[in-house]
Specification:
The protein has helices at 4-12, 49-52, 66-70, and strands at residues 20-23, 29-31, 61-63. By secondary structure, it is of the alpha+beta class. Strands 2-1-3 form a 3-stranded antiparallel beta sheet, with no helix packed on it.
């Protein structure tokens, strides 16, 4: 069960609790139900916000596949479907690192 504030944020961005997100700061995947309360007072923080500082849907936190959709060469090292995702899976922005389990 998610609270009203988080539910409102998810609805605002067209997300459901099971939607997968990726953080630009720590380069890890997590689900929308795990968004945290950020320093700006919104439910838009990365699950690991206190470690990485990632916050803001569309600023630091993105739909899991939004970066490779804009940069097709990224699919070479990016998960191909949501089935491959798991909480905490790391996928560096640049291909030098590849997927880290």
């Amino acid at each position: 069960m998610i609270g009203d504030g988080k539910a409102k944020t998810l609805k605002q961005y067209g997300l459901c609790p099971e939607s997968w997100l990726w953080c630009l700061h720590c380069e890890r995947f997590f689900q929308a139900k795990d968004l945290t309360f950020d320093d700006a007072g919104n439910w838009q923080g990365c699950f690991w916000l206190r470690e990485c500082g990632g916050s803001g849907i569309g600023v630091d936190v993105y739909a899991w596949d939004s970066w490779p959709k804009q940069n097709p060469d990224m699919w070479e090292h990016w998960p191909k479907s949501e089935v491959e995702l798991k909480h905490g899976l790391s996928c560096p922005l640049y291909s030098g690192g590849g997927i880290i389990n």
